[in-house]
Structures are given as C-alpha cells and as structure tokens.
Design brief:
Elements (H helix, E strand, L loop, with lengths): L4 H20 L10 H14 L3 E10 L2 E3 L16 E10 L2 E10 L5 H19 L7 H15 L2 E2 L5 E5 L2 E8 L15 E4 L2 E3 L5 E11 L9 H12 L5 E2 H7 L4 H13 L4 E8 L5 E3 L2 E4 L5 E2 L6
Antiparallel strand pairs: 1-3, 2-12, 3-4, 5-9, 6-7, 6-8, 8-14, 9-13, 10-11, 10-12, 14-15
Helix pairs in contact: 1-2, 3-4, 5-7
Length: 305
C-alpha cells in the first residue's frame, strides 16, 4: 500500500511537532514546576505551531503509568526523585504523531537509570526490525526477551497500537511480550511502539480517578451541560479531551461537570480513561515513537536522543 504525499506530509509534520514539544519539556521541568504549567506549554505550543492536539498531554509520575493529565485546579508540583512520563499526541488533518519520553527530576539511582536505558533500548531494537510483512509477534518476542534479561519487567497490559486518521488506537494491538499473533504489518501503515518498563510487578490497574474522556457515540439528553460536553466531544471527532478543557473552556463548575458526567455515563454517552497505576506502586518508565511502515521505515517523532 502506497501513501498519498499529502497524508505522508501530515504524518511527518505531526510527528515533528510532537517531538519538539516532548523534548522541549526539559526546559521547563524542575522541582516546583506545576503540572498544569507543563500542560499549558505543551498544548499551547502544539497550537502555535499550526497543528492540533490529538489527546491531552499525559504527565504521569512515578507509579502512575498513563492517563494522568492535570485537573482544572491541579496544584501538583514536580519534586526531586520524580520519574515523569510525558506522552504527547499531535494531529495534522487527523494524522497523528504519538510519542513519549521519561524525564527524571534530580539524579536517578543506578537502578532507575538502568531501567530508563533498558526502556530506550527495547524501543530502539523494536524499531530496527520493522518492515512490511513483519509479524507483530516478533516485536513482542524481542522486547520481552531484552526486558527479561535485564532484570526489569515490561508492563504487560499496556500495548503499542495502530494509528488511523482521527483514531488513536486502531489495529493492531502490539503486545510488548512474547505472543503468537499472526498479524503482519503492511506498507504505509502507521503504528506506535510504546514499551513501559518497571521494577515492579509488570501490571497496571485502573484507579478511580478520571481526567480524560471521549465521545464516540453521541446520545440525546435533557441536561444542558451534558449536551455541551457531547457537542464538544463530537467536534473532537472521537479524539480524547481533558476535564480541565471543559471546566475552563466551557466555564462549567466542577459540580455541574460531575452531574453531567453521571448523566452521560448512565446513557453510555461518554468513555472515560481511568488513570493507570502500577499495582505494586513501583516506578514506571515509558518511551514511544510513531513509525510509518515502509521498506525503510520512517520514524516521524525522532528528536533529541
């Protein structure tokens, strides 16, 4: 499958901007920096550079693996010893660049440093074998082997994924451990490889905190705030949005938001992404790139190494 030149350029632009803001976070991250300051900079810079936000920036600290984005009134500040995952999504005309990088605030222990280096290595090695016709089981087999030999664990219930226009998690699901999937990659396909590494159990659980949402199937409701949220979600074409975007952008109080959310959940009119936490409370590292599958694959989110 070939790729239209305009589509290819959209993927490249989205990836370039995603890499820029991902790497640019190093200039604003220090003890005392509020998470909302990081989020405002990342999301603002995406828009300033002529792209759109594919999903609210995830800023997940230590044992939190994914789906944490600042709440509207979030006072959380970075502190020494924090392992911080910055996961950025950018789209241009619906074509997505999805990328992540782990930062450490202060000086990591030798174990923490090794964990992050292993994480970068498994991502690099996985990208090196990508080609049309590759069985995705080969990715999991390779990543799992390297992680096991290192003494660390891959988070097994977090996966890489395909990327389609306005679709962040299309087929295939790319497992980061040995598996028997027969799915093969096709020329021109866009995928995200994102191994998570931990010194804990290798699993994450849902928490009861929900800060990111999507509207896939709009439903009718008499609640005015629920209708506003639904309309906002429709305009996102299924892409995720943050609670703080609703509170701040639609001038909705937290109480009204919660009431509207309850109404939409009762009607299956909204999808929530619970914050994910390592089950033993151990630290988690994450690195991710978006790749276009060709005989010579294109990593659209390359930046600073």
């Amino acid at each position: 499958m070939s790729m239209d030149k305009e589509i290819l350029e959209s993927y490249k632009k989205a990836g370039k901007i995603a890499a820029y803001v991902r790497d640019g976070c190093k200039n604003i991250m220090k003890p005392g920096t509020k998470l909302v300051e990081i989020a405002d900079w990342v999301e603002g810079e995406i828009l300033r550079r002529g792209a759109e936000i594919a999903f609210p920036v995830n800023i997940s600290i230590n044992h939190v693996a994914a789906h944490y984005t600042p709440d509207w009134n979030d006072e959380t500040e970075l502190k020494e010893g924090d392992m911080v995952k910055i996961d950025v999504g950018v789209h241009v005309n619906g074509y997505i660049g999805d990328t992540a990088r782990t930062y450490y605030i202060g000086t990591p222990t030798e174990e923490e440093k090794k964990m992050m280096e292993i994480n970068k290595t498994v991502l690099k090695k996985a990208i090196e074998i990508l080609r049309p016709g590759l069985k995705i089981s080969e990715i999991g087999n390779l990543v799992g082997k390297i992680a096991e030999e290192s003494g660390f664990k891959i988070i097994k219930n977090l996966t890489g994924h395909g990327l389609e226009r306005f679709d962040l998690h299309s087929e295939p699901q790319i497992l980061n451990f040995p598996n028997n999937s027969s799915y093969t990659l096709s020329e021109g396909q866009a995928i995200a490889i994102e191994p998570f590494v931990t010194n804990g159990s290798g699993l994450v659980n849902d928490t009861d905190q929900e800060l990111i949402f999507s509207v896939f199937h709009p439903v009718a409701t008499r609640n005015m705030d629920a209708r506003k949220i639904t309309q906002f979600g429709k305009e996102r074409l299924g892409l995720p949005f943050a609670k703080r975007w609703i509170i701040n952008g639609l001038k909705m109080s937290d109480v009204r938001f919660r009431l509207a959310l309850r109404e939409l959940k009762m009607r299956n009119g909204i999808y929530a992404y619970p914050v994910l936490s390592e089950v033993e409370g151990s630290k988690v590292s994450q690195f991710e790139h978006t790749i276009l599958i060709f005989d010579k694959p294109i990593v659209t989110t390359l930046g600073e190494e």
